[in-house]
Specification:
By secondary structure, the chain is α+β, with helices and mostly antiparallel strands. The protein folds into two domains: about 1-30; about 50-155, Band 7 domain (Tetrahydropterin Synthase, Chain A, 2-Layer Sandwich), CATH 3.30.479. The chain is built from six helices and four strands; from the N terminus they run ααβββααααβ. Strands 1, 2, 3 and 4 form a four-stranded antiparallel β-sheet that branches. It is flat and about 65 Å long. The protein starts with a helix and ends with a strand. About 10% of the residues are buried.
Amino acid sequence: MARLLLILALVVMAVAAGGGGWWFGVRGEPVPFLDSGSDSGSAKKKQASDDPVQFVEMDPISVPVMDEGQVVRILSVVVSVEVRQASTEIIDSHGRELRDAFIKQLHGMYSLDYVREHENRDKLVKQRLTRTARDIIGPAVKGIFFKEVNRRETAG
């Protein structure tokens, strides 16, 4: 009986380790509080930073922040997308798709306790929005910047 419990515990730990490896490794989910930059990537960043860039401001995005089925605040964000200068028309052609993806990401992230309760959440949110923009537009996206962020508490 003891051997069976030991084997069962080892199987559960192996499945948990494999799931964590998939979530943070294969899937590419950012690990909070860890710097995702590496020395091998710094050469690419230096080369890419020489390209002229332009900031394309998107229309304001408003997202309800939910907690236990109730709207606790309204988040309004003005996002600027940093792109290579020759790629600004890509933002115009993919604007609706990009805006929809940003709304989905913001709503999903702000429904998590981690994002709602931590003050340093902006770095994680920017990483996720940057990755979302790159998935839609491609490597022309260099970054995401919050031009304006308003968090308005709701009465209730």
